[in-house]
Amino acid sequence: MSNTALFPNTTSPTFPAAEVGVCAQGPISNRWPAAKINKSAIVDPFVEGSTRYYAKSTIFWLYLSFLVGVFGVLQTQWFVAFTNRPDYTQIRKDIQESKRLQDQLAREYGLRSGSTPSAGIEIHRDLFNTPQTEEIEGQLRFLLQDDLLQSDLKRAFGYDFRDINAVVFPGWLIYESVSEQAGLTPQGELSVLRSSGSSTSLGFTLRDQPEQQRLTIDGRPRIALNVGAFKTRETLRFALFHELFHAMNVPGISPSRFTFAQNDLTYLTEYRSYLWRSGLEGNRQYLIWLLIVIIPWTISLFCILRLVNLRRAKRESDKMLSGYLSS
């Protein structure tokens, strides 16, 4: 049986050729444009946020450590020596003028009292106990027998510690009767009361200067030692060494208001040289440089390197993302 017998009037259906990509609404490419890739959708927002926080914290520690290092430099002897250079001509002039006045006051006192003030450095034995007196004598002897120190002072100032006429007394025992015993004027007593008992100062010196109120009755400088000076032999030697400069009429120059780790004599080369040679300050200067200069600035350097690496990684990430989007 043939197919024509079964479907006598049937012909094969025909269909129009399809127009690919064409419909009533227009081309498919116009109706479905290529999707725009959002960069922020590709980058993990958590990673990007943590990176930003990491950079900000690094910048914070960079600024903080750098400022701590700057503060540390302000505490060094180097900074004081750089900013306060001594004028030795003026210092010699000040020493001579004060010495001239003190010698005149000593002569006037001798005429009034009939006794000449003793030369050299006198320890007020009635006010110190025996162990304290012996400690002071030992440390004074140590300083006065240092020929290198005395020659440095003589060369710089024209005087040394052996030329000093002064009296050493305890600054914590001042009251009216002791003030008279120590040879202080009322103004000198007031100065002692203002300075004695300090928890930070090891001692202080009262000396008569031109065009100022008289502090002593006989012109000899008074070296007052506070209790803290007797903590160790080294602290006592340091206190006497410092105050003998003032008793020699060397003027003090206070360092910068931001400098707390140095004193009013640090500007002198001879002062720093002896401290370095004798080791009276121990490792203090090393610790200043290490703890508040070198370590903070090392942290600053690491922070800079970290920021450079973060910037480089960001640049490489943006370059890879740009290549991905353009492919």
Number of domains: 2
Helix/strand structural class: mainly alpha
Q: What is the CA–CA distance across the termini?
A: 63 Å
Number of strands: 4
Figure out the total of helices: 13
Mean pLDDT: 84
The 3D shape can be described as: elongated
The whole-angstrom Rg is: 42 Å
Strand count, sense and barrel status of the largest sheet are: 4 strands, mixed
Main sheet: strand order = 1-2-4-3
**Can you write the helix and strand succession as a string?**
HHHHHHEHHEHHEEHHH
Pick out the low-confidence regions: 1-8, 17-24
Please state roughly what percent of the residues sit in beta strands, choosing from under 5%, 5-15%, 15-25%, 25-35%, 35-45% or over 45%.
under 5%
Helix content: 55-70%
List keywords for this structure.
four-stranded mixed sheet, mainly alpha, 13 helices
Textual characterization of the structure:
With about 325 residues, this protein is mainly α. Helix content is about 55%, strand content about 5%. It is built from 13 helices and four strands. The chain has a four-stranded mixed sheet, with helices on both faces. α4 runs antiparallel to α13. The chain is elongated, with a radius of gyration of 42 Å.
